[in-house]
């Protein structure tokens, strides 16, 4: 998301009430085991990071969504008059294809489901659907409220709108089939932004085919989950405008861990309000996260490191 001075409203700051959690700024996706002391105390596990590798990123782009698929990096960007969807070479950062949105749209999160690439918009309540390999527009669909982040679990699209709620959509009809509230220690976690679903390591290989074939059938009604996920896993969510990523159990909405990425990149003072952490992609070959931010010059492949108990 974006601060008021650059086009976002101050209403977003109203979500940082005492009853909700927006952590202050202070890294094998196979999560390291939290310390016994942390488990016994009931505290939510916390992680720092180790940078394994860096990749180039074009600082012109206001990153809103990031997906790695089929050997290519797909990026959705925001800002009115600058929003775009693109396919890039991860190693070089070279843009292979790019399609700009009409100036009236502020692009938001993206995901790839089968052979379709889907991109949300911020306040226009419309999502665009493209052919994955060509970026050819295929259509659009409407939703209520704002669009922030988007991912999927092989069966359902998972959608954030800046609140503490995650919505689940049928990937064929785009109808809402369920929702869950994200909580840590019983308190709602608001400003959920960019999302990435990461399958459990043991199911990563088995679930690869399901990603392309899942999504058929009739949506179930009611409940928090609707259609059941094709594979089990966790949702990783940027918390705007912090340096934190929440690790979320999609079946319960419970936060199972926090990743603190403070210090990963320190933007120039004049850009700090806008150049915040945003963008998470899963690299299946290395089973690590790729992260970046809005107008950042680099992307970072990281491993997670458990924090010692406090």
The CATH architecture designation is Beta Barrel
Q: What separation lies between the terminal Cα atoms?
A: 31 Å
CATH class: Mainly Beta
Uncertain spans, ≥5 residues at pLDDT below 50?
1-28, 202-224
Rounded radius of gyration (Å): 18 Å
Major sheet description: 8 strands, mixed
By DSSP, the count of extended strands is 22
Percent helix, as a range, is: under 10%
Strand content: 35-45%
What's the shape?
Answer: globular
Query: If you consult CATH, what is the topology?
Result: Lipocalin
How many structurally independent domains?
Answer: 1
Strand arrangement across the biggest beta sheet: 16-17-18-19-1-22-21-20
Order of helices and strands: HEEEEEEEEEEEEEEEEHEEEEEE
* Average pLDDT reading: 83
How many DSSP helices? 2
Which structural class fits the helix and strand makeup?
mainly beta
Structure, described:
It is built from two helices and 22 strands. With 310 residues, the protein is mainly beta. It has a single domain (4-306), classed as Lipocalin (Beta Barrel), CATH 2.40.128.630. The strands form five sheets. An eight-stranded mixed β-sheet has the order 16-17-18-19-1-22-21-20, with no helix packed on it. A four-stranded antiparallel β-sheet has the order 2-3-4-5, with no helix packed on it. A hairpin with a 4-residue loop joins strand 17 (233-239) and strand 18 (244-248). The radius of gyration is 18 Å and the shape is globular.
Keywords:
310 residues, globular, mainly beta, Lipocalin, eight-stranded mixed β-sheet, disordered N terminus
């Amino acid at each position: 998301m974006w601060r008021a001075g650059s086009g976002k409203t101050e209403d977003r700051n109203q979500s940082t009430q005492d009853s909700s959690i927006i952590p202050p700024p202070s890294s094998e996706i196979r999560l390291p085991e939290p310390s016994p002391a942390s488990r016994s105390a009931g505290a939510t596990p916390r992680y720092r990071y180790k940078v394994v590798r860096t990749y180039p990123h074009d600082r012109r782009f206001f990153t809103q969504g990031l997906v790695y698929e089929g050997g290519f990096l797909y990026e959705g960007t925001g800002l009115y008059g600058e929003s775009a969807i693109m396919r890039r070479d991860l190693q070089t950062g070279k843009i292979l294809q790019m399609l700009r949105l009409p100036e009236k749209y502020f692009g938001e999160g993206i995901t790839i489901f089968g052979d379709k690439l889907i991109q949300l918009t911020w306040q226009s309540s419309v999502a665009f659907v493209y052919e994955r390999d060509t970026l050819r527009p295929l259509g659009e669909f409407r939703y209520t409220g704002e669009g922030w982040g988007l991912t999927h679990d092989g069966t359902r699209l998972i959608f954030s709108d800046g609140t503490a709620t995650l919505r689940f959509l049928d990937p064929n009809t785009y109808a809402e089939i369920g929702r869950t509230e994200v909580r840590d220690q019983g308190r709602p976690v608001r400003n959920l932004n960019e999302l990435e679903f990461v399958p459990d390591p043991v199911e990563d290989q088995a679930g690869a085919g399901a990603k392309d074939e899942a999504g058929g059938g009739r949506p179930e009604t009611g409940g928090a989950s609707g259609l059941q996920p094709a594979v089990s896993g966790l949702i990783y969510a940027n918390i705007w405008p912090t340096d934190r990523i929440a690790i979320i159990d999609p079946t319960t909405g419970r936060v199972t861990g926090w990743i603190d990425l403070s210090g990963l990149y320190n933007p120039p003072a004049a850009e700090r309000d806008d150049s915040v952490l945003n963008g998470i992609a899963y690299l299946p070959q290395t089973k690590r996260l790729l992260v970046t931010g809005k107008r950042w010059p680099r992307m970072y492949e990281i491993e997670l490191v458990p924090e010692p108990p406090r």
